[in-house]
Amino acid sequence: MTEGQRMSEKRGLDRRQFIGIAWAAAVVAFAAQATSAFIKFMIPELEPGAFGTKVRAGEVNEFEVGSVTFFREGRFYVVRLPAGFMALYRKCPHLGCAVPWDHALEEFNCPCHTSLFNRRGEVLSGPSPRPLDYFPVQIIGDEVFVDTGQLMTRQEFDVSQVTPV
Ligand code: FES
Known about the structure:
- This protein is of the alpha+beta class.
- The protein contains 1 helix and 12 strands, in the order αββββββββββββ.
- The strands form 3 sheets. Strands 2, 3, 4, 9 and 12 form a 5-stranded antiparallel beta sheet that branches. The protein has a 4-stranded antiparallel beta sheet with strand order 5-6-7-8, with no helix packed on it. A 3-stranded antiparallel beta sheet has the order 1-11-10, with no helix packed on it.
- The model has no long low-confidence stretch (mean pLDDT 89).
């Protein structure tokens, strides 16, 4: 083999190595992009104020004592009690129906199997196995926030579930 042939073979090997490295880099870049797209698809970013995020409900003085206010996007009711605030999940603990607040009766009245709950979410009658679930409420300054990313279940009402004003 002449010196020229050896040099040519060496250059060919370098070219093959370069192509191999380029292919490996392309495969890694493609895999990284595909993984990123898959993660975004599986864990979509939540819009601020949507269910699953911390939702601003309003200012403290917008809620009269005794009021029950529904937030459709957040799927909760803000209940203003004399001692403070609760945020009750609208989903019935029995079989998951949406529970409306009955303004005339002043009770939550599940239309599916007639479980009744008072404004603290306690079961008054019907098949519900426990009170309405709730979300933590935070008062920052004079604003009320509900963390719909943290659903809390309970077996009975306790004053610790109320966020004082
Ligand atoms: S789903 Fe509410 S009582 Fe059955």
